[in-house]
Amino acid sequence: QSALTQPASVSASPGQSITISCTGTSSDVGSYNFVSWYQQHPGKAPKLMIYEATKRPSGVSNRFSGSKSGNTASLTISGLQAEDEADYYCSSYTSGSTQVFGEGTKLTVL
Amino acid sequence: QLQLQESGPGLVKPSETLSLTCTVSGGSISSSSYHWGWIRQPPGKGLEWIGSIYYSGSTYNNPSLKSRVTISIDTSKKQFSLKLSSVTAADTAVYYCARRFADYSFDPWGQGTLVTVSS
Fold this sequence. Notes:
Chain A is mainly β. Chain A has strands at 9-12, 18-23, 35-40, 47-50, 64-69, 72-77, 86-94, 98-101, 105-109.
């Protein structure tokens, strides 16, 4: 069970937008909309930001949005703020009622 | 609101069994709408799904951990547990418990507990 592929790091200035990709296969991301995204600040537990590829939980800023095309899911953060600096992980359901996380992406707000 | 709290030894010797418990408060552990899961994160590394359990006792585990993982649930105590056998230094990690929705997302998460495997 291989981890989903994410860029190791991305960076941008406050106010800009960034997109983090999450690439899987036809056995996971490509076949199901059960993709979720998590934000993790240092020393803290992950926080759910996006579920079912595009849906935002109550309380999560509308600056966060998700999309999916083929085997790749994406998380976009618009209007970057300093507090968005964190690690981001995607996760997907895979065949056999299992699931897998992405490698993680470190977002730096310059 | 729903809260989860992990508990268990912070130090385990190599070849022994790691045992952790997650206590659920502020909600029902017996709801048919949720599963309950364990996820771990080695120091400085990414997240790894360990397994999930339903209130009925049905479990789903990460194939990469093979038969070393046992997850159980005690609805009367509002707890679910993780046992990982034959541990090595590679099992050193922060272990999280979390509620899993039908869409396979996890929310909320416990604060996590660091387990170190060392003699």
